[in-house]
Each structure stands twice: as C-alpha cells, then as structure tokens.
Queue: 4 jobs
Job 1
Amino acid sequence: MNRRKIFSSELLDITIQRMTQQLIENHGDFEDTVILALQPRGVFLAERLKTCLEDNIGKSVKLGYLDITFHRDDFRRREKPLQANTTHVPFLIEGKKVILVDDVLYTGRSVRAALDAMTTFGRPEAVELAVLVNRKYNRDLPIEPNVVGRHVNTVASQRVEVELKGENFSEDSIWLTEKEKNQD
C-alpha cells in the first residue's frame, strides 16, 4: 500500500488555528452556537477546535458527542453488528446554531445520518459542517462543508487516514493511501 503524508503535525496546528478563526468570524462569541462531534472520528478534532476557540474568545463553548450508528443507511447491511458509541449531548439544540464536526467528508452518508440523529435533541436554527479533510469527487449525496481544513482530490481506490495524538498516536499525521495494484 502506498502512503503519502498530506498533513504534518505543524501544518495541522496551523490548519486548526485557521478553522478556529473562520468559526469565530461566523459565530462571534458562540453565545447561540454549539458543536456536535460525530463519533468516533470527529471527537478529537472537535475537542481541539473547542480548546482553540475557548483560548481565543475567552469563554466556554458547548461540545457534544453524537453517535450516528443506528441512523446510518448501511448499518443492517454489514456482516458483523456495529458497535454503538456514546452519545453525550448535555444541552438542547433547539434554536441554536450547530456546527457538526468530523475528520473526513467522503460520500456524505455520515453527515446525513448525523442530521437525522441530531433532531433528537431539538430543531436547530442552522447547521454548518466543519471537516478537516474534504475528499472531492466521491460524494454520493449533495453535502458540502462550510469550514474545511483542506480539500483533497481523491479517487475511490484511495483512503484518507487521520492519526491524531489523542487517538493513541505519537504525533499528528494525515495520510493519503492507495491500494497497490495486483501484478500477475
């Protein structure tokens, strides 16, 4: 399998700072805005964004964790049962602006499931999507992010692997991997 690093730890820090500034421009002091991280991969990015936001605006930002397992359109099609993650949303989202956070946007199906799961906690005023990597040219649904760390042109045979320190990795790295072709 071929691997090419598309983000180093230093570039990731700069990217998170930039995404934070864009969120502050869009939401000001976050008085009426909350963050919902898609479990499991969006949690580590959302926690970093929350910390950076709080450092910049000087006040607490509400963060919840949203499990989308049973809202996915493919959860019954798998050979093994899916393991659900914890949903922790200690606030209502009724009338709030919600920022959904995930690490990689690929087909859009996870975001569609998140929109369904989110309505359990109320009807938001508006919803935005923030992703670290936007995989272009692979969307199944007409979903586009509002805040993007980086756009990456990919094909179906490629995969984006996000390795963040909080996920048992020694350093932050994001890789673009490609399956090796069988040579007969």
Job 2
Amino acid sequence: MICLLQRAKYGKVEVDGACIGEIQQGLVVLVGFEPHDNSEKLEKMAHKLLNYRVFADDDGKMNLNVQQINGGVLLVPQFTLAANTKSGLRPSFSSSAAPAQATLWFDEFIDVVKHKYPQVQTGEFGADMQVSLCNDGPVTFWLQN
C-alpha cells in the first residue's frame, strides 16, 4: 500500500464538474494498492496517516498530526502510484492491485480511517477526477507498508 501524503491549505476533487469531496486545512492523500496488500496493512496505514506529524506546533516544528489541528483528510484513489517505472518510457501496471480488489480495499480503507477520525472526504475509484489543492510548504511524504 502506498500513500502520497500532502499537507494542504485546501483540497478538492471534482467528477464531471461536480465537487464530490473537499477539505480546508489538512491532508490530501493519494492512495494506491499493490497485490500483496491486506486488511492489516490498511489498519497500519490508517494509524500512520492520522498520526503522522506534519503540522507545525507553536515553535514552528512539525510536531502535530491532522487530528491535533482538527484538519480534514481527503482520500483520493490513484492506481498509478503502484506503477512499475524502472524501465522503458511507458509505465507498467502489473505491480498495481487489480481494479476489483483495489476498489474493495479503497472502500475498506475509507471505513477504517473514518472510524478513527470522521473528518474524511474522498474521491471516486475509477472516475476521471480533477484534483486541486494548495500544497502547504510544500510538504509531501511517500508512505509505504
């Protein structure tokens, strides 16, 4: 499982011109799945994501997590994160989870994260999404388990 976490001033996902998910300050997280992922990995990633300290404390140090600042979380499915780009000039998606399985994992991941922290918005698996955000910093981390 791969999450590309971005600290954001705001984030929004649109499908067919309609906003389907939007947050103010918080995390915009692109989420990709690999064939060997499982429910245990989803739980661990949810914990890490919600507790990862990327927001500044009163001293300007990244010591606060999204929950401590009462921020939003925008989860956006992105199968291309798991692409194999080691050779050639075209990505291979053989290292990505099959769409049917990845859809189930994304839905489960949403449930796990929302159970731990309800301020969650999402994109739509398989949709042609337009994602916009203001990356704050910029601060971006690649989380993988």
Job 3
Amino acid sequence: MDAITSGPDVEKLIHLKTLYLGPDELLVAAKIALTSDKTVREAAADIDEIEKRIRDAVPIARAIYIEPDIYRPAIDPTPPTDVFVLKSSD
C-alpha cells in the first residue's frame, strides 16, 4: 500500500485488490483518487510512476491495473464515526 500512496500523485487509495497468480506472479488492482485538475497526460504519468513504485517494492507484481478516480467522501462506504448524528428525544 505504501508503494501506491507514498508519492505526491495520489490523493487517496480508494480500493485495492491483489491476487496471487503463481510462484512469480502477483496481480495488483487499485482505484486511486487523483486531484481533479489533472490532465489525462498528467494522470497517465502519475500512474506510470505508481506502477514503478509497486514493481520496486514487490518485484513479482507483474499485472498492475490502476483506475484513476476523484474521491467523493459523500459516498464513502466507511465514513468516520464523527459524521453520525443521534437526535435526542428531549
């Protein structure tokens, strides 16, 4: 996970899946939040850098799929508990 989030290019790791395919092969799939002002060229360069960091950290990561997105906290399936409001009956 640090290989994905350690650079300035990732705003948030939204979702990560890995699948062990064999003795020398790991599949990594991640959905990441990039800032909304990125061009397609900048997003592609960021993804290339993330893939390089993953391969440096985990050499058996052969198939890497990175899906760029924009993080929208309103649809976060695990919001922090301080967002819940309990109404009193008094």
Job 4
Amino acid sequence: MTTIGLIRHGITDWNVLGKAQGITDIPLNEEGRKQASAIADRLSSETWEIIYSSDLGRAQQTAEAIGSSLGIKSLLIDERLREINCGQIEGTTEEERIARWGANWRELELGMERFDLVAKRGVEVIEEITIKHQNKNVLIVSHGALIGLSLQRLLPQMFPKTYIDNTSLTVIAKPQDVWECRLYNCTKHL
C-alpha cells in the first residue's frame, strides 16, 4: 500500500497580504522558511522515501528543506501539482477585486481555472504516483487549493469543504480500492 503525505508550502508575503497567488511564482518569506524547517524536523523521524513538488518556487523551497532533512537528494517536479491558475485576480486582495469588478466578481469570467479541472488534475497525479510507487511512502508538496480540491474529489463524504494551512500535513492511503484519510491538516510542528 502506498501512503501519500500532502504538504502545503510555507507562507509567503502574498499569503500574509491576502493576495491571490495562483501560479505567480512568489518565494517563501522568512516565516515560511521557518515553517518549512519545522515540517522538515517533524518528518525527519518518519520514513518517507520520495518527494514530489509543484514546479513553483514556494513549493520547491519547502520540499528542498524536507528533502535535506530526510536525506532525499532529488525532488521529482511535476507541473500538474501547481496551484490553481487565478487568472486576472492574481496579485489582488479581496478588497481590490471588489473595487475593480464589484462585489459579484466571482460570477465574472476572469480567466480563473475551474475548480473541477484543478481537482481532476490533482487526483490524476495522486493516482499516478500511487501506482508508480507501490508500497512506498511519498510526500507531495503542493498548494492549498490543489490539495483541498483533490481531497474533496477523492473523499467527498469526508471533505465537502477543506481548509489547508501552510506546511500542514495530510496523510492519505488507499489500502483497498477506497481512499482513506489518516491525518488532516496537521500543524502540530508549528
């Protein structure tokens, strides 16, 4: 049985400011680097064998800290693990979006990637990794929306809604033909 550990990247300045990041490549800030170090320390006493990461820098920085702590020298980078494309709202706060497009901005076509497509690509890559690395413990460092929407698709009864904290750990496995969640959004290392 393959065990998958899903980790959201550490915090960035745009997270602090409440700006939609999407696929804009924003690095970790100082606190984010400390969070990455904290999750790396936590995982150092566990047996994780492989690390996948989004191609965006904030995820890779987090994954590199974890890999260094675990002695895993190479990260497997997969673009499908990147965050939702937020289109025209990237780099804006809620207040700025309301000022620019009005209170109903969510109803407008602003180039944002559809949630169902994000969930579909997230589930596809998780399923592919599970098959490729049978009986391994695999970490996937990604982003809040990708992780949350994938969980909603994999375990809809358990996750009608999700919230994923920075550097939280969620552990899922598929012991039979059904996914189960063993740990959700855990930040005990912070």
